[in-house]
Write a structure and sequence with these properties.
Low-confidence stretches: none
Structural class: mainly alpha
Radius of gyration: 12 Å
Mean pLDDT: 96
Helix content: over 70%
Number of strands: 0
Order of helices and strands: HHHHHH
Shape: globular
Length: about 100
């Protein structure tokens, strides 16, 4: 499901609908996916070279989700080798 969500967001972004892509990502990661799957969406967006979507999702998720979920996502990102993103989501949670 994480890969499918990232692919759908990538398609919207390619079609010039970045706002719709971010809305889809925000809804999907907060209401449909668990923190592990959310981290995988972020990794997948990086692999698709949709860095702006990954950055926006990291900021929004870190800002809006509870600390436990943010910590779980950060841990998974770290495990996946996305150390910079793990730090970024933690910093977003502090703002």
């Amino acid at each position: 499901m994480a890969r499918q969500l990232a692919a759908q967001a990538g398609e919207l972004d390619r079609a010039g609908k970045e706002d719709s892509a971010l809305i889809l990502l925000r809804h999907g990661t907060t209401e449909l996916l668990n923190p592990l799957e959310t981290a995988l969406v972020m990794v997948e967006l990086r692999e698709q070279e949709r860095d702006h979507l990954a950055d926006d999702l990291i900021h929004v998720y870190g800002r809006d989700q509870d600390d436990r979920d943010v910590m779980a996502v950060a841990l998974e990102l770290h495990k996946e080798g996305a150390v910079h993103d793990a730090g970024a989501i933690l910093r977003a949670a502090l703002k």
